[in-house]
Design brief:
Helix content of chain A: 25-40%
Number of helices of chain A: 7
Radius of gyration of chain B: 84 Å
Number of strands of chain B: 0
Helix content of chain B: over 70%
Radius of gyration of chain A: 16 Å
Largest sheet of chain A: 5 strands, antiparallel
Largest sheet of chain B: none
Structural class of chain B: mainly alpha
Strand order of the largest sheet of chain A: 2-1-5-4-3
Oligomer: heterodimer
Order of helices and strands of chain B: HHHHH
Number of strands of chain A: 5
Strand content of chain B: under 5%
Shape of chain B: rod-shaped
Mean pLDDT of chain B: 86
Number of helices of chain B: 5
Mean pLDDT of chain A: 94
Chain lengths: 178, 434
């Protein structure tokens, strides 16, 4: 079990840990976001052992290039018992990056209570990464001007929603059409 | 050894333990030194213990897998084999089971969310096929194909609905427009009918009045005609009176001439009487003279002569008076004759005037008859007008009724058009939700 994020201990590199086009990273977390299951692809790409992965917070692999607003949106959506898709740049244990098209869904018991979260991550296309990267850079710029993380997350999420409103589509449609 | 599972390790150690046991037995049989047999036996036991431990771990791992599979059997796809700390075939088996469950779990979630989105009428959320293999990939592709086909059909349906809406809207709009126009026309027609009716009534009243006037004129013309006849009769009478007057005047003229002639005769007689009275006077003078000579004897005579002289003087005076009277009479006669001529002349003129009047009267009669005929024609025409006006009034009434009906129809058509529009809108809202 690792308690600190990789980004706190290593500097991000410019190298990519390559995810196969037909591979899926699968992981499950408890309601607090602690990893309860990680498949072998996850362990390989994030350069983790199962022992290290189980019980660690999922934000372990969060990359500093990712805006907080996206994760706020992710958690807001999951709290609303809905699925969410997001393009996410993650960081492996050694600071290498890997882009994923993440699909996170809440798992519910027969009474509809959320009992865990499930995440499947696939390799996004180069075109999708080229499209989402400048948006994230813009959101990150907005966040840097904020005084605290919470304000930063709210500000960048508001900017994202505003952009989607201008384009006249929902977030779900947006991520599926780029 | 490191890449072996606990089960393989246990098996291997069992084999080693069996070999050691077999070695110990051989060593006993060959009467080798006892320490060797004992050492081998001890080793066999130790290895057997190790094998037991590995087998136990293997058994625990297999139990975990069994538990996992049991949960999966119950439909709990949250189940995974975690932290078994194995390697080799048991690790591979656990990983493969996890991978298999990941596929099923993943596809189940994909299908459920994709179909959930489809059920909301959105078709962009396709099943992500990446990572699924074999039959699962095939199923995912098939479901996505169905979603795609559904979307296309729905799009087609919506496009048809739009076209339907467009055309129905167009129809409804033109129906509404026509209804509106018809309503307007009907209202205007109704108004016109009312105006026509009221004007026709006024015309009918005017015609009736005209007819009465024509009758009055006809009566007046008749009276005029009668009056003209009377005048004619009187003029004729007057002409005949004039003729009589002329005749009378002519007769009188003759008599006056006769009177004049008689007067002339009287004059000549009077002149003769005058001469006689002068001679008498002279005789009386002579007698007086003679009587004076005769003296006394002639005194009586002288008186008679005086008497004769006085008579002669009286006669002379009477003659003068008669002459004067005759002269006066002549003057009167001449004046009478002249007056008679004037009378005849005047009568002639009057006769000419009467003739003129008579001819005027003829003309007047003709004119009066013309008036009477015209008045009759006016009366006839007025009758026609009256009849026609009645027809118009009737027609206006019918028009009013008809336009009222048309108005009602137009209003109901408008309402129907609105109803149709609303029904179509409702229908489209309903079908578009599907």
């Amino acid at each position: 079990m690792i308690k600190q994020r990789f980004a706190d201990t290593v500097k991000p590199t410019t190298y990519e840990n390559v995810l196969g086009a037909d591979e899926i990273i699968v992981s499950k977390t408890d309601l607090k976001g602690h990893i309860t299951y990680a498949n072998d692809v996850f362990l390989r790409i994030a350069q983790l052992s199962e022992k290290e992965a189980i019980g660690s917070p999922h934000c372990l692999v969060r990359h500093p290039d990712m805006p907080r607003g996206i994760f706020k949106l992710l958690w807001d959506t999951l709290t609303d018992k809905r699925e969410i898709f997001a393009y996410v740049k993650n960081m492996a244990k050694n600071g290498n990056y890997y882009w994923v098209f993440a699909h996170v869904t809440p798992s519910m018991d027969s009474s509809g209570t959320v009992i865990s979260y499930h995440s499947s991550r696939r390799k996004p296309t180069t075109k999708q990464i080229e499209k989402i990267s400048p948006l994230y850079a813009t959101l990150l710029d907005i966040e840097r001007k904020c005084s605290n993380p919470k304000e930063a997350a709210n500000a960048s999420l508001a900017a994202l929603r505003n952009k989607l409103k201008q384009e006249g589509c929902s977030y779900d449609e947006y991520v599926f059409t780029i | 050894m490191m890449n072996m599972s606990s089960l393989s390790k246990g098996e291997a150690l069992q084999k080693v333990s069996a070999l050691l046991l077999f070695g110990a037995l051989i060593s006993v049989a060959l009467q080798e030194p006892a320490w060797l047999s004992l050492t081998m036996l001890a080793s066999a036991l130790t290895v057997a213990l190790g094998a037991m431990l590995f087998c136990r771990k293997a058994s625990q791992s297999i139990n975990k897998m069994e538990n996992c599979i049991h949960r999966l059997e119950q439909g709990d796809y949250e189940a995974r084999i975690v932290s078994i700390n194995e390697s080799g075939n048991l690790y591979k088996l656990a990983t493969q089971i996890n991978h298999f469950v990941d596929m099923i779990d993943g596809l189940t979630r994909e299908i459920s969310h994709s179909m959930g989105t489809v059920s909301q009428g959105k078709y962009y959320r396709k099943i992500l096929e990446t990572g699924f293999t074999g039959a699962l990939r095939k199923s995912a592709t098939a479901i996505n194909g169905i979603t795609q086909a559904t979307e296309e059909r729905i799009m087609l349906f919506h496009s048809h609905a739009n076209m339907f809406e467009k055309s129905v809207k167009k129809v409804v709009e033109s129906v509404a427009m026509v209804a509106h126009q018809v309503q307007g026309s009907a209202e205007s027609m109704s108004g016109n009918a009312l105006t026509t009716e009221s004007q026709s009534n006024a015309a009918a009243a005017a015609a009736t009045e005209m007819l009465a006037n024509a009758q009055t004129v006809a009566t007046a013309a008749e009276e005029l005609s009668a009056s003209i006849s009377e005048i004619d009769r009187q003029v004729t009478q007057s002409t005949s009176i004039s003729k009589n007057a002329v005749q009378c005047a002519s007769g009188t003229d003759q008599e006056v001439q006769e009177l004049v002639t008689a007067t002339e005769k009287i004059g000549s007689i009077v002149a003769m009487i005058g001469e006689i009275s002068e001679q008498t006077n002279l005789l009386a003078l002579n007698a007086t003279i003679e009587a004076a000579r005769a003296g006394e004897a002639g005194k009586g005579f002288a008186v008679v002569a005086g008497e004769v002289k006085s008579l002669a003087n009286q006669a002379a005076r009477a003659t003068e008076e008669i002459t004067e009277q005759i002269n006066a009479m002549r003057n009167v006669s001449e004046r009478v004759a002249k007056a008679l001529k004037d009378v005849v002349h005047t009568i002639s003129e009057s006769d000419a005037v009467a003739t003129g009047i008579s001819s005027s009267i003829t003309e007047q009669r003709a004119a009066t008859q013309e008036i009477a005929r015209n008045v009759q024609e006016v009366a006839n025409a007025t009758h026609d007008v009256s009849r026609n006006v009645s027809t118009v009034v009737k027609a206006a009434g019918e028009t009013k009724t008809t336009s009222g009906q048309v108005l009602d129809l137009a209003k109901s058509l408008s309402a129907e058009a609105r109803q149709l529009q609303s029904e179509v809108d409702k229908f489209l809202v309903t079908v578009r939700k599907t």
